[in-house]
Design a protein that fits this description.
The chain is of the alpha/beta class. Helices cover about 30% and strands about 20% of the residues. The chain has five domains: about 100 residues, no CATH class; about 200 residues, P-loop containing nucleotide triphosphate hydrolases (Rossmann fold); about 200 residues, 3-Layer(aba) Sandwich (Rossmann fold), CATH 3.40.50; about 60 residues, no CATH class; about 90 residues, Alpha-Beta Plaits, CATH 3.30.70.100.
């Protein structure tokens, strides 16, 4: 989402709501309150607060426990009556509030407005968004239990701060100083306007994290109550970043918000952020909806990462909401990446000719810390390699040479498991999932065939289930097989101390248990691992000081994908992976610089030419030109409508019927509705999936159309449709 100069111009209803006074229903009956609760997404009441009675008026944002049917649920006293008209209920049918959690400070107007916007923009129930943003344990606590936790939190807040001195920050490079000066200037604002968003375009290893730390220190020093929010794309990046912040700010309480916390931990950290006890909040995408009343700075690290886009429920973009939230709260927002999203890159464009500059300020840091050069890119043409070859002989030689010198190698293959398919060469049987239109992946460690879409798992058959052939073979490579192949090829090689090479693997299978990822990363950092095999989770944000060689295997699938964003994701992945190499200049020898090896069948592709030159601007310019010619984002705006049913015909028919009902509105607003087509994969867990793409050059027109289109979906839904959802600004088509 690129916010317009004035978001009110596109969304007049986004003005901060004026709190309406609570009014008695009748004398002596109590005060009517509008309460937001989480209702099913497709309920006709889901978009509006429900009326309840209470003895006294409660401030908006107060948490209450209210009856809903036979249940008692958590709700929020709301003040959006003008924005979300309350539900019409007969006065005698209005039920009383059971409990008011008045010990907890109310959720402030900024937070409530953020929730209201998120619900409207992403076409979801505001109650669903609001309650999903609260810690789950909060829904089960009564007033006494909550009061006990608040008193404990306050006691820790007033305790003596630790005596640990803050670490001494390293001296800033000239480019870091320039970036911080520009950031300070942009934060001053003009005429009461919100600070201008900043895009920190820094190469891998250029010291972006140090800029974040200095920006946070400046924000905390400016105001005694100031809070900052730092977003990271993955849970596994949170511990190392939290350690750096704790080392730099030992006197400050740090709250971490991500799905890896226990319910009790998540409640504790959320309360610390909500009450202002924690002035630094670190988290993944969920943290963007946390209650942070005194927010002054938002940092979005690796802002290009697709992990910032929620894929279930309210399909929001945490990066886009961070920009919107900072704009509303007059806070500064800093986006950082070595490979920015093309939307952010376009919005940070300089003025050129008659075209005005973008709304973001671009801060460039092209040089690495310590004068360490960027890795040299070597393209290996696998078209001339022997059939079935996984590694080129030169790559294996390079791995052995570096291991003998005590250097590490990172091997990237973005596919876990042993092999993506098992097949029978006699009858052609393949390991298809009986519930999905996809293949089950062979996992050798536990001898299972596992569907990565629905989770269906069974033991590997001893023979072909169709013809009985005992010679069942594998097709393709996964990280598990890659680890095994490397061990076979490198078994004769030795480290400098004469020990055999140590090979480790990091992917979703090896990091399922608590603490497994931290333990494996510790082995890598200590030098106990010579070759690290993994998926994209090891290519983001990690500071591997001993890695001097990165090898990317089989990246060609994205070059000719039907998804127009696939080249952007591939380029970012390869640039980020290559950035793990040569970060410590002291370990890089002049005769053998750090390298990124890419094994490909298409070494002459323009994407690899830009990669060899580490020229992201050239790559971005080419992609933006193609998207401009095709009318694709950021030059247009899209939404995907998805439907699931027991039959593909019903799913597609449901989408077509709704589109036909809105045909006149689509023509009037300039929204183009593409035909409904099957999704990829078409069937998941025995449910047929279809989608329809909606596109418009005008965001306001698309939002207006989606509002009415969602009403048509409600009106035309029948029992054949299991569920449907609208994905605004989708990342994959």
């Amino acid at each position: 989402m690129q916010l317009p100069p004035s978001d009110e111009a596109l969304f007049p209803d986004l003005e901060p709501p004026t709190p309406s006074p609570s009014t008695p229903v009748c004398p002596g009956a109590g005060v009517r309150l509008d309460v937001l609760v989480a209702l099913p997404a497709h309920s006709p009441l889901s978009m509006a607060p429900l009326p309840y009675l209470h003895d006294t008026a409660l401030p908006p944002g107060t948490l209450v426990r209210v009856p809903l049917g036979a249940r008692e649920v958590l709700g929020i006293v709301w003040d959006e009556a003008a924005d979300m008209p309350g539900t019409e209920v007969a006065p005698e049918a209005i039920r009383p509030v059971r409990t008011a959690l008045t010990d907890l400070p109310p959720l402030n107007a900024h937070w409530r407005q953020l929730i209201a916007f998120t619900g409207r923009y992403y076409q979801r129930s505001p109650g669903e968004v609001a309650l999903s943003a609260l810690p789950p344990q909060l829904r089960d606590l009564d007033a006494v239990q909550l009061g006990r936790r608040l008193r404990k939190l306050q006691a820790t807040a007033t305790a003596q701060p630790p005596d640990t001195p803050a670490s001494v920050p390293p001296p800033l490079t000239p480019q870091q100083q320039q970036a911080l000066q520009a950031l300070e200037t942009s934060g001053e604002g003009a005429g009461g306007q919100a600070p201008r968003p900043c895009l920190l375009f820094g190469s891998t290893g250029s010291g972006k994290t140090e800029v974040y730390l200095h920006a946070v220190a400046r924000a905390l020093a400016a105001t005694p109550q100031a809070q900052v929010l730092v977003l990271v794309p993955e849970i596994n990046l949170t511990p190392q970043l939290q350690a750096r912040f704790a080392d730099r700010f030992p006197q400050e309480r740090i709250a971490a918000l991500h799905s890896g916390l226990t319910p009790a931990q998540r409640l504790q950290h959320w309360l610390a952020a909500h009450t202002g006890v924690a002035r630094i909040v670190l988290g993944t995408r969920m943290a963007v909806l946390a209650s942070i009343p005194h927010l002054q700075l938002v940092v979005v690290d690796e802002e290009h990462d697709p992990s910032y886009k929620q894929q279930e429920g309210a399909r929001y973009s945490a990066r886009d909401l961070a920009i919107y939230r900072a704009h509303r709260q007059q806070a500064q927002v800093l986006l950082g990446s070595a490979t920015p999203s093309l939307e952010s890159w376009y919005q940070s464009r300089p003025a050129e000719g008659d075209e005005p500059a973008g709304r973001y300020l671009r801060l460039a840091m092209p040089e690495r810390i310590g004068a360490a050069p960027l890795p040299r890119v070597r393209l290996v043409d696998m078209a001339h390699a022997p059939r079935g070859a996984v590694f080129s002989p030169l790559l294996l030689e390079a791995i052995g040479t570096r291991a003998a010198r005590g250097e590490q190698t990172l091997v990237l293959l973005n596919r876990r498991g042993y092999a993506p398919v098992l097949h029978c060469p006699d009858c052609g049987w393949k390991s298809e999932c009986p519930h999905c239109s996809a293949y089950r992946v062979f996992h050798k460690a536990d001898r299972t065939l596992r569907c990565h879409h629905c989770g269906y798992t069974e033991r590997v058959p001893r023979a072909c289930p169709v013809c009985g052939n005992l010679d069942i073979r594998t097709l393709g490579q996964g990280t598990e097989r890659l680890e095994e192949s490397l061990a076979e090829h490198l078994q004769a090689l030795r480290r400098a101390d004469g020990a055999p090479l140590a090979i480790a693997r990091i992917d979703a299978d090896t990091t399922r248990h608590a603490g497994a990822l931290e333990a494996q990363l510790a082995r890598v950092h200590s030098g106990d691992v010579d070759v690290l095999v993994g998926t994209q989770m090891i290519a983001k944000g990690h500071d591997f000081r001993r890695v001097t060689l990165v090898a990317a295997l089989n990246p060609d699938g994205a070059l000719f994908s039907s998804d127009f964003r696939a080249p952007e994701r591939l380029f970012a992945l390869l640039m980020q992976a290559g950035g793990r190499a040569g970060r410590d200049a002291a370990l890089v020898r002049p005769d053998t610089p750090a390298e990124l090896w890419v094994q490909t069948q298409f070494p002459t592709h323009p994407l690899f030419a830009a990669l060899r030159a580490h020229d992201y601007p050239a790559f971005a310019a080419r992609q933006l030109e193609e998207r401009h010619d095709a009318g694709l984002p950021p030059y247009s705006h899209q939404a995907l409508v998805r439907a699931e049913s027991r039959s593909q015909e019903a799913a597609q028919g449901f989408l077509r019927t709704a589109a036909e009902a809105c045909g006149e509105l689509a023509a009037a607003t300039g929204v183009y509705c593409y035909p409904a087509v099957p999704m990829t994969p078409q069937r998941v867990a025995n449910q047929e999936r279809a989608q329809m793409l909606l596109e418009s050059p005008n965001r306001a027109a698309l939002q207006h159309f989606l509002h009415h289109f969602s009403q048509m979906l409600h009106a035309h839904r029948d029992r054949a449709i299991l569920r449907w959802a609208i994905d605004v600004d989708p990342l994959a088509i």
